[in-house]
Backbone:
């Protein structure tokens, strides 16, 4: 009999916020956005980076729940060590 514990799907911490409001703060399986080179996805274990965001819908994908979608006009995304922070209205 195999008694190894089940492994959970990889996830990362995501926070989407503006100076006076937090839009999303929690765990997710991915986040999608757009910069000047095009649309992109950030998955768990992504390389560290920072980018300016273009007008787009930020999509946070959640396991077993509907996606969180937020239209934005501009922002900055910072990815480091399975933590993604999106600063809006900056």
Residues:
């Amino acid at each position: 009999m195999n008694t190894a514990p089940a492994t959970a799907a990889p996830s990362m911490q995501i926070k989407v916020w503006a100076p006076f409001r937090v839009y999303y703060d929690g765990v997710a399986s991915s986040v999608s956005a757009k910069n000047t080179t095009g649309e992109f996805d950030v998955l768990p274990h992504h390389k560290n980076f920072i980018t300016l965001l273009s007008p787009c819908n930020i999509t946070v994908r959640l396991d077993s729940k509907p996606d969180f979608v937020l239209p934005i006009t501009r922002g900055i995304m910072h990815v480091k060590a399975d933590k993604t922070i999106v600063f809006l209205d900056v």
